[in-house]
Amino acid sequence: MEDLKKWDKKPLPHNELAERTILSAIITSTDALEIALQTLKVKTFYFKSHQEIYRTIIEMYQKNIPIDVLTLNTYLQDNGYLKSIGGIDFLTNLVTEIPNVTYIDDYIELIQDKFIRRSLIKLGYAAINSGYITNLPLDTVLKNVETEFFNLTNRNSSLNISSNAELFASIFAQIKQKSLNPSMAGISSGFYDLDALTQGFQKSDLIIVAGRPSMGKTALCLNFAINILKSTKLPVLFFSLEMSKEQLAYRILSCETNINNFRLKSGNLQTDEWVELNNNMQKLSNLPLFIDDTPNPSIAVIRSKIKSILFEQNQIGLIVIDYLQLMSQFQGNSKTESRVQELSQITRSLKIMAREFNVPVIALSQLSRNVETRVNKRPILSDLRESGSIEQDADLVMMLYRENYYNLQSKQDINPKDITELIIVKQRNGPLGVIDLEFDSKYAKFLNLSTD
């Protein structure tokens, strides 16, 4: 306890010069202000006067009031805040030296570093206090502390509640930035008709890809993963609960090299095919694809593995789980009354996971056998097997359907290149629709049909 008393007397980490420099920059430069609005919160500033000035600037920006020393001084004075921040002399001294706006990101990083250190100190004291709370299970205490520490280290997580002014000022700045530099809202799937409907896969979305067996669910999601890896270089995590990582690797190689899976496994390749295989393996080896083939993992195990990759890679572009019905809410025996109830808890946990890690999560799902008994076998939302709360928690639900598959006398008659419908049956923030894709079952590859 003596050591704790010594720490109590130390001032919390802060950088006064960096805070003053940032305020000077955003008062004198609209570009600097818009950068700050997207990353800085009021509480990131250490000094109360600096917090008040930044809060006032946000209010003025929202009201479309021009921002300079004179207008800021007037606004502070009219609202009774000028004296509390140090008067007109404080504002004048603040902008005496105009900083280099080019380095505004670096200045912001300096005060964010100190803010996180202050938050870490407070969290440390909270962790100490939680050790004295004996009426809570130890597992609960440790989980809470672990979650708080993870949120602190995850720069994408919001460390504070946003005020209304902060939230809308940040959104307005983002919209303005996108108007100047038009781009897709989410991560491109690599299929332009799908991207046109969805604007890409959105961060924090839970996406369900469903279908009956042999419709190509795994192949499609592997295509998504490779397309995103190539276009963004962001890490992709693929949790394969059914296939081994070796099986997936062969499917990826077949897709990329256009060499039949059977011939790859047999090693019966021509000279030019060996060259093609070697070139593609070198390219694929440089992509940050992580495959985990642990059977029947629990939500806690998956979260733990995502965290370890996130700590190592700093960010994640996409998480794929193949497939939903093979997951468990708890390790070992289920603690729920029914499988439907457990699936409900799993889908809810996956949605929370998508929001926590701020990354799109794709979960594959089987459809009910009832589809096979109908005359019209085109799937609908109610066909989700043991759906639980999938319909409620999912932001986007897509279903694969190949009509020709049901018209065949035997699977030997399957056309290597068949038209597959990708049916969007639910989208929280967008239109529904049907996208035609060509499925090349020979190489487990989906192709765009329409032209740009």
What descriptive keywords fit this protein?
single chain, 452 residues, alpha/beta, DNAb Helicase, Chain A, Rossmann fold
Brief account:
The protein contains 20 helices and nine strands. By secondary structure, the chain is an alpha/beta fold.
Task: Report on this structure.
By secondary structure, the protein is α/β, with parallel strands linked by helices. The protein contains 20 helices and nine strands. The chain has a nine-stranded mixed β-sheet, sandwiched between helices. It is elongated, with a radius of gyration of 27 Å.
Shape: elongated
CATH structural class of the largest domain: Alpha Beta
Structural class: alpha/beta
- Ends: how far apart? 68 Å
Global mean pLDDT: 80
The CATH topology of the largest domain comes to Rossmann fold
* Overall tally of domains: 2
CATH superfamily of the largest domain: P-loop containing nucleotide triphosphate hydrolases
The overall strand count is 9
Strand order of the largest sheet: 3-2-4-5-1-6-7-8-9
Order of helices and strands: HHHHHHHHHHHEHEHHHEHEHEHHEHEEE
Rg, rounded, reads: 27 Å
Mind summarizing the main beta sheet? 9 strands, mixed
Helix content: 40-55%
Instruction: Tell me what portion of residues adopts beta-strand conformation.
Output: 5-15%
The CATH architecture of the largest domain is 3-Layer(aba) Sandwich
Count of runs of 4 or more consecutive helical residues: 20
Unreliable stretches covering 5 or more consecutive residues: 156-160
